C-alpha cells in the first residue's frame, strides 16, 4: 500500500543524500538519481533546488511524460496527504484504473472514447466518431496492444535506438503478446502458437485487427523499433508461409513466430532498388543444389537474421527468371555487415554478400522462375504496412507537437495561440486524416475483393497511398520539428520522437517502392484498369 506524507514532512528532505520532490501529488526520492539527472546547467543542482516541494510545473515544462513512465516506478515512495487522503486516493486510483480506457462522458459524447483524446492524436474512431469498420473485437485488440506497447516498448524506445539494438528477450515478449503473428498477413492457424491480441480466434483475426496492432506499435515513434521487431518477419516470412514446401515451413515458421529466430527479405541490390526485374544475384543450377553469388543491400534485420528469403536469378533476364531461395546463416559464403544509415538504427540494416553459397534444392521457395509473382504478392501487404507506420508516425508528430504547443510560451502566448502555429497543425491534420481514410477503404477492399484480381485492382491505389503516406509523414515531421525548435534538433528529451522520426522519413519514402515509382505505377495501373473496365478516355 502506498505511503502518505504531509507537505511539512516532504520539506525536510532537501539534502544530496536525502532528496525528495513532488510531481503531480506523488513523492519521488531522487537521492540515488541526482548524479544521473541530465542538464546543461548541472542536472543535480536543478533537482536539489526543487527538492522538498512541489516541482510539478518545472517538471512538466522540461520533460515528456515518458520520463515518469520509465523512471517513476523505481523512484516513487508515496503520495502527498493525510491518512484520510490516502484512502480516498487509493480508491480514486483504483476506479481510474478500471475506467482508464474511458474518457469522462460529457454532453458531446456519443460512444466510448479511447485514449487521451488529444485532437487527431488517434484515428477518428478512437475519438468518439462512428465508423463502419470496427466492432467490439477491434476494441479489445486496441486496448490490449496499447497497454502492452506503453509498458514494454515506449519507455525503452530511446535507449534501444541509441544502442542500435533491441534486447533479445523483448522478441519473446512481443511474440507472447501475439504481435509477431499479427504482422505476417493471413497466417494459417496451425502456425499460431500464442494467443492473438484480444484473445481473437485466428480465423476471425482480420485485416483491421492487423492494422490496429501495427498502428498501436508505431505509437512508439520509432521505425527502428517497428522494423527491428518485425520488419524482416513481416516481409521475409510470408513467402515461406504462402508458397514454401511443408519442409521449409516446419523448419522456419515456428522459430520465427516465437521470436527465437529471425528472417529477412533480401531483394534490393547495390545496383538496383525498385528495379526488381533487373536483379543480378545468381543462383546457378548445379544438379542437386544451387550455387548462389551476389550482393544485397539495405536488408532490414539482415544483421541478425538466421534465415534469408533471397530473390535470385535462376533463368532468363527480366521478370521471368527470378526465384526465391531460403538461405541459412551458417551456410559457408554468407557475410553480413551493419550499414551506417541515417535512421532506423535498431533494425539491423545489412549489406550481405553471397560467395559460392551452396543451397540445397529443397530450399527453393515455391516454383523456379515464379519469384516475381511472389514478390508482387508480397508488395501490396508490405506497402500497406508502410502506410500504417508512416501515417501513425505523422500522427505522433501531431500529438507530440500539439501537447508541446500547450505548454511552450513565446511572446507571452502559448504556441497554440499563435495563428501561424495553428495553420501548421491544420495542414498536418488534413493530410493524416485523408491518408487514414484512404488506408481504411483499401484495407476493406483487401478483405472483400477476390484475391486473384487484387494485384491488378489494388496494386495501383496502394502504391499511390504509399506515396501519399510518406509525403504526409515527411510534411508532419518537418512541421513538428519547427514547432519543437531546438528540442527536435537534439536527441532525447521532449523532442525525442520528432527528432528521430525526422531522421527516419527516407527509410519509408524509399524502400518498398520509392515515391517516384509508386506515383507512376499508380497512374499507369489506373489507366490500364480503366481501359479494361470500359472507361471512356
Ligand atoms: C522524478 C524526477 C525527475 C526525473 C526522473 C527526471 C529525469 C530527467 C531526464 C531523463 C531528463 C533527460 C531529458 C528527457 O528525457 O526528457 C531530464 C532533463 C531535465 N530535467 Fe529532469 N527529471 C526529474 C525532475 C526534474 C525537476 C524537478 C526539474 C526542475 C526543477 C528537472 C529539470 C530538468 C531539466 C532542466 C532538464 C533538461 C536538461 C537539458 O535539456 O539539458 N527535472 N530529466
Report on this structure:
This protein has 537 residues and is an alpha+beta fold. Among the domains are: 3-98, Cytochrome b5-like heme/steroid binding domain (Flavocytochrome B2, Chain A, domain 1, Roll), CATH 3.10.120; 263-371, Butyryl-CoA Dehydrogenase, subunit A, domain 2; 379-532, Up-down Bundle (Butyryl-CoA Dehydrogenase, subunit A, domain 3), CATH 1.20.140.10. It has 18 helices and 15 strands. The protein has helices at 7-10, 43-49, 56-62, 66-75, 83-98, 136-153, 157-163, 168-176, 207-217, 223-236, 238-243, 246-257, 371-405, 419-448, 454-484, 496-504, 506-509, 515-532, and strands spanning 3-5, 14-15, 18-23, 26-29, 76-80, 263-266, 282-285, 289-299, 307-313, 322-328, 334-338, 350-360, 364-365, 409-410, 413-414. The strands form 4 sheets. A 5-stranded mixed beta sheet has the order 1-5-4-3-2. The protein has a 4-stranded mixed beta sheet with strand order 6-9-10-13. A hairpin with a 2-residue loop joins strand 3 and strand 4 (26-29). It is globular and about 85 Å long. The termini are far apart. The model has no long low-confidence stretch (mean pLDDT 93). It binds protoporphyrin IX containing FE (HEM). Protoporphyrin IX containing FE (HEM) is lined by residues 21, 23, 28, 30, 37-40, 46-47, 50, 55, 58-59, 62-64, 67, 71, 75, 492-494. Protoporphyrin IX containing FE binds next to strand 3, helix 2, helix 3 and helix 4. Residues 2-81 form the Cytochrome b5 heme-binding domain. This is Cytochrome b5 heme-binding domain-containing protein. It comes from Phycomyces blakesleeanus (strain ATCC 8743b / DSM 1359 / FGSC 10004 / NBRC 33097 / NRRL 1555). Its cofactor is FAD. Belongs to the acyl-CoA dehydrogenase family.
